[in-house]
Structures are given as C-alpha cells and as structure tokens.
Design brief:
This protein is mostly helical. The chain has four helices and no strands. It starts with 7 loop residues before the first helix and ends in a 7-residue tail after the last helix. InterPro entries: LysR_subst-bd (IPR005119).
C-alpha cells in the first residue's frame, strides 16, 4: 500500500478545515492540528493554556478601533456606556 508509511491522521483527515469559534480553534491547536494568530485575551480565556505554545512576534500588531452605527438610530444604553468607558480611556476623543 502506498500510504503505509504515512501517519494515520494524514490519510484520514483532509488538508483543509475551518472554524470561526476561538475556543474550537485553540482546542485544535492544543491537539497539534494547526496554528493560529489571535488576540491575547483569547489565549487567557482558554481552559488549557498550558497545552499551547505562544510565540510572541515583534513588532506587535495594532489596529484602529472604529465605532460605527446607523446615523438615524440612537445608540442603545449599552453602547452609550461602552462609548463613555472608551472615552475615559482616551479612545474616541472626537466622537
């Protein structure tokens, strides 16, 4: 048999997969089935942190945070509270 020398998982599993749930992604990484790039908090929230290796890159990835909402609808109380918090942290000073 041609594939006899290959590990069993390479024969059974295809080379592609997809998940957009961070917990599931990290579960697969912890099992040795791939790698991912994700926010720091996601690793901190993962139940099995000790089972994944973190490689810190340099320089850090930084992106702008945008607040977008429908102009004709008022912000919900929850969104207003979040905006007030972000303003107090120095974010969105001109909003």
């Amino acid at each position: 048999m041609e594939n006899a020398a290959l590990p069993v998982f390479e024969v059974v599993l295809g080379p592609l997969g997809f998940s957009n749930q961070i917990g599931l992604i990290l579960e697969l990484v912890a099992r040795g089935l791939g790698f991912t790039v994700l926010p720091y908090y996601a690793r901190q929230a993962f139940a099995h942190r000790e089972e994944i290796q973190v490689v810190e890159g340099s320089p850090p990835v930084v992106d702008k945070l945008w607040l977008v909402h429908h102009a004709e609808w008022p912000l919900s109380s929850r969104a207003q509270l979040a905006l007030e918090y972000l303003r107090s942290m120095g974010q969105f000073p001109n909003v």
